[in-house]
Amino acid sequence: MKTHLATALCLLLSLSACTAPTSGNDAAVATGAGAQKFMDNVNETLLKLGIEGSQAGWVSETHITDDTSALNARANQRFIDATARFSKESVKFDKLDLAPDLRRELNLLKVSLVMATPSDPKEGEELTKIAANLDAAYGKGKWCPDPKKPETCLDINKITDIMRESRDPKKLREVWEGWHTISPPMRKDYVRFVELSNKGAKELGFADTGAMWRAKYDMTPDEFTKELDRLWGQVRPLYLKLHAYVRMKLHEKYGDIVPVSGPLPAHVLGNIWAQDWTNIYPLVAPANADPGYNLTDILNRRRMAPVEMVKAGERFYTSIGFAPLPRTFWERSMFVKPRDREVVCHASAWDIDSVEDVRIKMCIQPTDEDFKTIHHELGHNFYQRAYKDLPVIFRDSANDGFHEAIGDTIALSVTPEYLAKIGLIDKAPDASRDIGLLLDKALEKIAFLPFGLLIDQWRWKVFSGEIKPEDYNKSWWDLRLKYQGVAPMAARGEEFFDPGAKYHVPGNVPYTRYFLAFILQFQFHRALSQAANCALPIHRCSIYESAEAGKKLNAMLSMGLSRPWPEALEKIAGTRQMDATAILDYFKPLDAWLDEQIKGKPVGW
To answer: Which of 437, 444, 439, 447 has its CA nearest to residue 480?
Structure first.
C-alpha cells in the first residue's frame, strides 16, 4: 500500500454527461466556481477518509483479528463509497472550460479506484468485507505438516527460508504444495469478489474491473495492452536465453526432475512463486565468477539489526540530497514480526496522512534480499514526501509503475562500489567478476518480467469473463507456461486456487505496476548515472552521494501526479516513451556470455 488513493491518470470514464440544461442548485454549481468548490470538498473529504482508512488498514495488517478486519472493511467502504459518489457527481462539469489543473483533478478523480463498490449498500458492504477477509486469510496463512502439532506450522517467512536454502527436491516440492493449501478456501469468496467488483466498475462506466485498472495510463485499455506486449517483446529474447541456461544447469543438479527441454519445475527455482531466481545462483553460477562477497553472510556475521539496515537505506537517500525521515517513521514502522500476534509480513510502504506520517511494514531478516527491499520500500516513502505539498488528488506517482520503480532504481545503485563506500565490503571486486554479478542480477530482474506480466493477464481475463470460475486454476497455469515457461510437477486441478497463494491476488493489488517498474528502473538508472557522470559500465554505476542525480530525481518526484506520466518520464529520462533498451544495455555482457553457454542447447519450451 503506497497511499490512501490509488494511482490515477488523465483518462475519462464512460459516464453520461448532462444532456439538458440544469436548473436550480445544479445550474448554480455547474460553473467554474462550482467546479473549484466541488474539488476543494473532494480533496478535503478524501484526505480525512483516507487517513481513517490508512490507520484502520495499518492496524488490520499489524494486528490481525476479526475485529480489526471489520474496522478496516468499514473504513475502506467509507472511502470507496465517497470516491465513487464524487466520481459520478463530477460528470456535471465535463463540458465546462476549466483551468488545466482543475480539469486534470476532475479527470483523475474518475479513475482513482482499484475497487469500486456497487451502489447497493448491502452489496457494497459485502464486497468490502470479502476484500478484508481475503487479505486477512493470506496474512494468517500457514501450512501445518502435522495439524496436531502447531509447532510444525510454517508461515510465509518459514516457507521462504526453506525455498531459499533447501536443495532437496522432495522437501521443496512438499513445502511448495503445502503453501498452496492456504488458498483453496479463498476460491468461493474470490468468485463473489469478482462479481461484485465488476458490478461497481460497470456503474462507473467500465466494462469490468480489469478495464478500470487499465484506464489509468493515458491510453485506452486496448492500447495499454499492446504497449505491454511491445515492451515484453523487447526483453523476451533475453529471458529465453536465461531460461535455457538455468534449465541446463538445474538438469545437471537434479537430473530428470528438470527436463532437458520444456518448462522449468515451479518448485526448484528458490522462490515459492518462481518470480525471483537469485536463491539458486550457487547452482547456476559460472565457473570462476564468484562475485567476491555474500551480502547475506556479511549481514549475519555483523549481526546487523533490522533498524540498522533501514538506517543504511535512509542514508542512501540523504546522500543525494533528500531530507532525513521524520521521527515518527522510526516510532511507528514495523521492522520485525511481533511474537504475540498475527501480522501481514509482506513488505509495504505506507503514507498514513499524505504529509509526514510515512512508515514501512516488514518482517526484516538479515538477507541480501531484504537489504534491497528496504531500499525499494523507502523509495515509496521519499516519493510520498516529495509530492506532499500538491493538491491531495495529485499526491501520487506519475503512474503506479513509477512508484515501484524509484526504490528499485536506488537498489540498482547497491553495487560493489557502493557496498565498499559504506564499509560492508573492503573493496569492489574487479571486472572479471562482472558476469557473476550480472547473472545474479538477471536471476532477480529478468526472471521476474514474465511473472510481473502474467498476474494481471490472468485477472483481466477473470474480470472480463473470458476465464470462468471453473477454469481459474487451469488458466493460471496456462499463462504461467506461456510467459514463464514454468509448470508444477503434477496436474493442478480446479480443487486448487493457486493464484490465491500470491499476496497480490487476495490483497487486490494491481500487479502490472511491477512489470512497468522493472522496465522503468533501468531507464531511470541509466539517466541518473549519466547525470552523476559515471564513467563505469552502467551495471557498475551508483548514484550514491551524487547531488546532481538527486536533483534530477527530485524534479520528477515532486511532480507527483500533477502532469501526465510521459512528461514525468521526459523530466528524468529525456524521452516520453517507456523503453527496455536500458535493460539490454545493462545486461549486454551477460547476453553475449549466455549465447556461448547455450550454443547447441534447446531454447524455449
So the answer is: 447
Using an 8 Å Cβ cutoff, are 557 and 385 in contact? Answer: no
525 an active-site residue? no
Q: Is 243 a catalytic residue?
A: no
Cα–Cα distance, 571 to 439 (Å, whole number): 31
pLDDT (tens digit, 9 = 90+) per residue, 327-342? 999 999 999 999 999 9
Model confidence at 29, pLDDT cuts 50, 70, 90, reads low
d(CA 171, CA 176): 8
Q: What is the pLDDT of residues 140-188, one digit of tens each?
A: 999 999 989 999 999 999 999 999 999 999 999 999 999 999 999 999 9
In angstroms, how far apart are the furthest CA atoms of the chain?
81
| pTM, to two decimals | 0.83
- Of the candidates 280, 129, 105, 135, the one whose C-alpha atom is nearest the C-alpha of residue 196 is 129
Q: How many residues does the chain have?
A: 605
pLDDT recorded at residue 347: 93
CB 37 within 8 A of CB 22: no
Q: Are strands 358-361 and 348-351 parallel, antiparallel or unpaired?
A: antiparallel
Distance CA 76, CA 74 (A): 5
504 catalytic residue (yes or no): yes
Closest CA to 557 of 513, 524, 533, 516: 524
Helix (H, G, I), strand (E, B) or coil at 503: coil
Mapping DSSP to helix (H, G, I), strand (E, B) and coil, where does residue 196 land? helix
* CA–CA separation, 286 and 532 (whole Å): 31
Sequence-distant (≥ 6) Cβ neighbours of residue 600 within 8 angstroms: none
Residue 515: which of 441, 460, 449, 461 has the closest Cα? 449
d(C-alpha 603, C-alpha 344), whole Å: 39
Which residue of the set 70, 346, 420, 567 is catalytic?
346
Q: Which of these is catalytic: 4, 243, 380, 525? A: 380
Q: What is the residue extent of each domain of the chain?
A: 138-186+223-292+441-501
β-bridge partners, 486: 264
Q: What are phi and psi of 111, to 5 degrees?
A: -120, 30
Q: Any catalytic annotation for residue 251?
A: no
Q: How many CB atoms lie within 10 A of CB 589?
A: 15
